[in-house]
Structures are given as structure tokens and as C-alpha cells.
Amino acid sequence: MGIEDFGGGQNPQTDVLVVTTNDVPGYRVEKVIGEVFGLTVRSRHLGSQIGAGLKSMIGGELKGLTKTLVETRNQAMERLVEQARSRGANGVLMFRFDVSEAADVGTEVCAYGTAVVIAPR
């Protein structure tokens, strides 16, 4: 079952539907595989830290940090999907992100959810 069977999705190149909800309307959960996650830790770039420090004094978006966080979240989500697929899932329910500091040297981003096999009703 490919993503086209779900009627779209956030990434047409994946065969795993990832949703933040507990279920998918029009589909039933045939099997719960269990928790899956994707984890990445990114160190801070000295230049972006200096730029962010200066920008924080005058206000405005920290574009370099925003770009880095988006890339980091995408990588964590890709790893989550890879893990779900490798365990035989075609869906991830209750998808969430957790972001925390990693020993004051970087940012840890964990994407997690429940891997399932879903099928149309």
C-alpha cells in the first residue's frame, strides 16, 4: 500500500503515512507494531551563535537557527519513517517531536510515534 492509497500526504515519496492523530479516518488499524523514533543531535555553529546573539539584542527572526531546526526536524522524521518501514509499518500514529538541549553543545530532536499497519475500511 503506497501513500497514494491514502489520498495524499506530507511527502509523496514515502509509503508510510505519518499523522498526529490517534487514527486515520476511513482506515482501520490491523496491527500495532509499537513505538518508533528518529533521533538526531546537531551542534551549534559558532558563527550562527554569534549572529543569533547579536540578532537577539535587536529583535527579529533568527533565520540561520530556524533553517537548522527545520533541517534537523526533517532528518529526525526521515529516520522515524525508515524505522517504521523496516519494522513492516505503513503508518505512524500519534506522531510528535521532542526537542531538548544536549549537554549545552547542541540540540537533540526526537521524532516519535506508534508504528501501525493500516488498511481501508
Question: Top keywords for this entry?
Answer:
121 residues; Translation Initiation Factor IF3; four-stranded mixed beta sheet; alpha+beta
The largest pleated sheet is described as:
4 strands, mixed
Structural class: alpha+beta
Total count of strands: 4
Helix content: 25-40%
Strand % is 35-45%
Summarize the structure.
The chain is an alpha+beta fold and 121 residues long. 31% of the residues lie in helices and 38% in strands.
Give an account of the 3D structure.
Pfam families: YbjQ_1. Belongs to the UPF0145 family. This is UPF0145 protein ACEG43_34185. The chain is of the alpha+beta class and 121 residues long. The protein has helices spanning 46-58, 63-86, and strands spanning 17-18, 27-43, 91-102, 106-120. The longest helix has 24 residues, at 63-86. The relative contact order is 0.28.
Write the layout of secondary structure elements.
Elements: E1 17-18, E2 27-43, H1 46-58, H2 63-86, E3 91-102, E4 106-120
Parallel strand pairs: 1-3
Antiparallel strand pairs: 2-4, 3-4
